[in-house]
From TrEMBL:
Molecular function in Gene Ontology: heme binding; iron ion binding; monooxygenase activity; oxidoreductase activity, acting on paired donors, with incorporation or reduction of molecular oxygen
Database matches in Gene3D superfamilies: Cytochrome P450 (1.10.630.10)
Organism listed in the record: Paraglomus occultum
TM helices/strands, residue ranges: none
Coiled coil: none
Protein name (Swiss-Prot/TrEMBL): 222_t:CDS:1
């Protein structure tokens, strides 16, 4: 049955948008007039969550983990230190942005084969 008829994609997107907006609201610190949000990073996590739920019907909570990283909770300090360590030693060729063709290929693979293959 086509996705446009089932409405499954719309339901998943609405749920994920609500979750993401709640995380954004919670990022605002008391006394701050504004909060800067890196929309590109959030969209990557949103897309990963959507693909996981849509293809495997399992929540991976990428947005939740990213939110916890941004909150700088004491439990995540060790994770942040490890990420800084990795960033210092990562191969520069891995830091380049992906090309449109690479992104298209990965999206086709995710939709056709799923994420667990």
């Amino acid at each position: 049955m086509p996705l446009s008829v089932t409405g499954k994609a719309n339901i998943i997107i609405n749920q994920l948008c609500e979750e993401m907006m709640q995380h954004w609201i919670n990022l605002k610190q008391p006394g701050d007039k504004e909060t800067v949000i890196n929309i590109a990073a959030w969209m990557r996590h949103f897309t990963a969550d959507f693909i996981a739920v849509f293809t495997a019907e399992k929540r991976m909570s990428f947005m939740k983990y990213y939110y916890q990283k941004l909150k700088n909770e004491p439990l995540t300090e060790e994770i942040l230190d490890n990420e800084k360590f990795i960033e210092k030693r990562i191969d520069p060729s891995l830091k380049r942005p992906m090309t449109d063709d690479e992104i298209r290929g990965l999206m086709v693979d995710a939709y056709v084969a799923g994420t667990d293959t």
